[in-house]
Amino acid sequence: MMNQYDAVTLIRKKRDGHELTIEEINWLIRQYTHGDLPDYQMSAFLMAGFLNRLNESETSALTQAMLYSGEVVNLDHVSGKKVDKHSTGGVGDKTSLLLAPIVAACGVPVPMISGRGLGHTGGTLDKLESIPGFQVNVSLERYKDILACYGAVLIGQTKEIAPADKKIYALRDVTSTVESIPFVASSIMSKKLAEGIDALVLDVKFGSGAFLKPFDEATELAQTLVGIGERFGKKTIAYLTDMNQPLGRTVGNWLEVEEIMECLRGDGPQDLLDLSHLLAGTMIWLGEKADTLEEGIQMSREAVSTGKALEKWIELVKAHGGDASVLESGAVSPHKASFQMDVLSISDGFMSAMDTFELGMISVMLGAGRQKKEDVVDPAAGFRLHKKIGDNVKAGEPLLTFYTNRKSVCESAGTRFLNAFELADQRPSPPIMVASVVDASGIRPYRSK
């Protein structure tokens, strides 16, 4: 049977700024998924689409083609509205580990397929794997079983889920076509829609530590993501949140798990708790266990204060094969860095700004992340912040403490950390954690009640 289309013609069509049809995009993705379209031709299409960006119709078609390149999970055996959350990534962004047990404890099933850290951003899977024995690579059948039994599941992308996206994502990474909002949006949504969800909450970051730093670009991504979700019949809400400083106080895989345990015991950094309760409350509301967002937020807080979320977290860790004993209060840490060092302020003032991207990259240097996909992550590496924007700082006070098993990087890391902070004579206005909310009705400023 002759090919219905010709790859060169379609590449030229997009190169010259014309719109591709749904059928043409379906053909390209199908051919590439099956190995009938070589990498060099898909690379040419990606660059043509990067330079002459995909419109709304093409982005939706690309999402659909990648979604149906594999299995779309059927979760009808799990009662209730299934709701997930996705973050565009940042430094110290550990909310997924809080949201899954909180929301599940409130009766909303959470099917969560997450990713690994790359570059300055951390990855949920790396944090989970810092818990000894925790298995993130499970079959789809086990994924369904854990969700049905425990109300939540946290795994990595399987070979059945959006295989076209997995191939294309790897190609985008090496062809400098990553920073395209239509490509980013279709990649995110094809995986999320394949999970079997009924609704989705999005945390879209802006600021120095975000993937898309300018607020207007983050806004465009949020609107694109919500638009795709709604077109596929999934109730979708996005929040635009600040990433001009790390979220919480810790950055690093095991350090962040420890901070999650603090939060589930009713303590922990207020910024992390506030954002987590907002996201969890929205998930509970979309899961139809609360009549209003405010009621959902209150249910989230009660799940923590009563200990139900902590109980659910321990259940989930055990269900994934993890050693829950290391999470007990006072337990001996399974990961201990050989070297730690305080970075001291050299002057008085108020913390006024941080280069959050640089902080993330230094954590990679310490061993907490990876610059290449094959890099090995050290679960003990990272840092703990002692000062955040608006805090008063005295000369000689520690700004942070870092932990590493790489003695050779300690001196240079200390210097780089010190240069990543800015002090001012006057206390700056505190950052606004949540700037805007985007839903089917449009974008509006977020106002907490």
Low-confidence stretches: none
Largest sheet: 5 strands, mixed
Per CATH, the superfamily of the largest domain is: Nucleoside phosphorylase/phosphoribosyltransferase catalytic domain
> How much of the polypeptide forms β-strand, as a percent range?
15-25%
The assigned CATH architecture of the largest domain is 3-Layer(aba) Sandwich
**Tally of discrete structural domains:** 3
Radius of gyration: 22 Å
Extended strand count: 14
Strand and helix order: HHHHEHEHHEHHEHEEHHHHEEHEEEHEEE
Tell me the helix content.
Answer: 40-55%
What is the approximate shape? globular
- Reported by name, the CATH topology of the largest domain is Pyrimidine Nucleoside Phosphorylase, Chain A, domain 2
Distance between the termini: 62 Å
Q: How confident overall, as mean pLDDT? A: 95
Q: What CATH first level of the largest domain would be assigned?
A: Alpha Beta
